[in-house]
Design a protein that fits this description.
271 residues; alpha/beta
Length: 271
């Protein structure tokens, strides 16, 4: 099944360009169209001269968007890029992205993140994390240095606990099938956790795709993930469970510890 519409939120940075590159290279096919969006908000704390400030922010954002569009057109002039809509909006980033995704019935959201400083440092408190917490659509998170490596496999982090509904499996198999890539199912055992006893349901879910199964161990999820993905050239797939895994992942007391470097592009699929 091909992707019809992709939402590309942009802050006009080099990272945003990388995200656009990823979308064009890995996700777009003939007939795929992009919705380009910039969401700005009032800086926290300031309310004096608010109306004037909002007008200025809107003007600046619109000017930046025109320049960004020109960059994209020049960058992909060989590829007939279809832009469905270009929007500049004020408000909460995650809310606006989800609303746009719903309005345009997108199959995925693709955005950039600063890679080198480590996932948590780059993401905590930022737009990407806000969106992840409220995630309703598959989200690709692309580090700025993703081109240093090619994607040779999908590594899917699996908590070993529950079945995967078909809606979760679909975007993962679509990516794997389009590029004929194998999937490595990775179970990270944290401390005393047991290995997965039965992989049958997952084998069935990904029938027809070459599967490898790997157990990794760590004092924490990040440590286990880092060990298993260190030299990988892969798309890292995470399932955004309603609670468990994610809260565990983001409520780490010392969020400044850059444990897991976001050097790999990630696909986060909401349950």
């Amino acid at each position: 099944k091909k992707m019809k519409t992709i939402l590309l939120p942009t802050d006009f940075s080099e990272n945003s360009l990388m995200a656009a590159d990823f979308a064009v290279e890995y996700l777009c096919e003939k007939g795929t169209s992009l919705v380009l969006a910039h969401v700005y908000d009032i800086p926290r704390g300031g309310t004096s001269g608010l109306f004037y400030l909002l007008e200025e922010l809107q003007k600046q954002a619109e000017k930046n968007m025109v320049e960004f569009l020109q960059k994209l057109e020049k960058r992909y002039e060989e590829k007939e890029l279809e832009l469905k809509q270009v929007v500049v909006l004020q408000g909460n980033f995650a809310d606006q992205c989800n609303a746009l995704a719903k309005r345009f019935e997108v199959e995925a959201i693709v955005m950039g993140t600063k890679g080198a400083s480590g996932l948590k440092e780059a993401l905590i408190g930022s737009n990407t994390v806000d969106l992840m917490r409220e995630l309703k659509y598959p989200l690709y998170v692309i580090p700025e240095n993703y081109k240093d490596k090619s994607i040779k496999e999908l590594i899917m982090s699996f908590d070993g606990k529950s079945e995967l509904p078909a809606s979760l499996v679909a975007p993962i198999t679509a990516f794997a099938n389009k590029r004929q890539l194998p999937i490595r199912l990775l179970h990270v055992r944290v401390k005393e956790e047991d290995p997965v006893q039965n992989w049958t349901s997952l084998r069935n879910a990904f029938e027809g795709i070459k599967l490898d199964i790997q157990e990794s161990w760590g004092e924490s999820l990040e440590e286990g993930l880092k060990k298993a993905t260190d030299e990988a050239e892969a798309l890292l797939v995470m399932v955004r469970r309603k609670q468990t895994f994610w809260e565990r992942f983001f409520n780490i007391s010392d969020s400044r510890k850059a444990v897991l470097h976001a050097e790999l592009p990630m696909l986060i699929v909401p349950e």
